[in-house]
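Subject: Interface between my chains keeps coming out wrong

I've been trying for a while to get a sensible model of this assembly. When I model each chain on its own everything looks fine, but I need the whole thing in one frame so I can look at the contacts. Pasting all components below, labels as-is. Any help appreciated, I'm running out of ideas.
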Amino acid sequence: MLAALERRVRPAFLPAGVLLSTLVVWEITWRIFNIPRFVVPLPSGIIAETWAWRWYLLSHSWVTLYETLAGFALSIAVGTPLAVMLVYSSFLRGALYPLLVVAQAVPKVAIAPVLLLLLGAGEVSKVVVAFLVAFFPIVVDTATGLAATPPELLDLSRSYRASQLKTFTKVRFPMALPFFFSGLKVAVTLSVIGAVVGEFVGSDKGLGYVIVSATSYWKSNLAFGAMLLLAVMAVGLFGLVELVERLVCPWYALAREQQEVVEDLSVKDLEKVRAAAG
Amino acid sequence: MIELASITKTYRSRQGDPIHAIKDVSLAIKEKEFVSLVGPSGCGKSTLLKLVAGLVGPTRGVVRIRGTEVREPFPDVGIVFQSAVLLPWRTVLDNVMFSIEMLGLRLDSYRDRARSLIELAGLAGFERKYPWELSGGMQQRVAICRALVHDPSLLLMDEPFGSLDAMTREEMGLELLRLWEERRKTILFVTHSIPEAILLSDRVVVMTPRPGRLARVLDVQLPRPRTVEMEFDERFKDHSDEIRRLIFARRQEPAHARRA
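Reply #2:
Try treating it as a single job with all components included. I did that and got this:
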């Protein structure tokens, strides 16, 4: 049990160590060379400032968080059925897929100002930008997953004269879930970016607004604090999606772990054989 | 039970050229008979299975099962493929019950049957395990149980032991025979392995490659129940030599003659 816990926690030690020592080197170097604080602030200064402005930052984080979540939810609501339609209808695939690719090729950062013009400077425009950047990976990954159903299983379902709906709910969709979740993981971090880009372009709320306004007043400590919170938000949301994945399709993670154990064992066996051979 | 009357199956390639998978094949299979199809890759063995299952229609000719023409998927059938294709989120028992669910039958009335089949297949105690906790051979046993749980009169097997190692393969073949002795069905069995075909079947259908035609239908002269020792029998060797001759004679013809 303890060993299992250690195996889970250990991978975090190394990156945490690297991060911590980078911060220490950063703090020391800046103090030795006396670099102006408003250019690049000190870690200690960032932490102090973030704490001092905590309520202000939290209220703006909340705005960015719900813009992100609304955009993410919208991208699931639109992306998943779209993926299903693309897989089931060759007509729609032919008609829509090239357009989707073209739409994806347009940088979303370029669309954001136009959207603000259309939808106003309120939250709606940010939600739409977040949705636009996030829905493409969901469509592509879900469609890939649905198309990857082993043809034997489709033949089997057909030979039992099962309805399309039954085949979809009992075979195709569960089979595509790991793909769907890998799309969600990409999408959720992209929606954070989308919301912040929307806020950059024009708003008076959200962490994107905090960064823009803080830098224009040379308050780089505060800007760094906002960035820190954005990072925490993105990582947290990613972890949340991963948690839901583990709850919804535990078999996927378990099968992978089993595979690793098997590979581990065979490597150990190989070592034993080598040792025995001298 | 099954009657194939001058079946031709032509596919269209992406460029629109016709590909002749099967040409003019006629074959009759009796009730409860074990028939193997052997032949090199691309001789349309798998296509023939799909035709019998009603999963594809013939370009010309008729498939009849018990006198009725097969025009759509024929549900009184169990299919086993080369890979087990189990559902990874389902336990062994639930994977076997998959057939019952898809057929829309009452789950309660088949659960005991599923359990006894699992036991018969040597998987007692594994009902609650997941596919990824089983070896390849065990997974394939589950797939066979899934194909038998609704008690179909016809079992179609498309190289079912093709992805297993040689030792497991031999063992599985004999176990299949044991299952078959216990619950007689008509079996159509596609394989690459000549010894496997002889050891298991009542008759071996030898096919030639592209377009697939029947080269010979061979009655296996070995008594039942079959044992591994029969591989040393003189008759086994004769059959094996004959099948090899039929397959390799074609290969030595010039390429253009084969393609014609």
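Reply #3:
Confirming on my end. Chain A has a mean pLDDT of 87.
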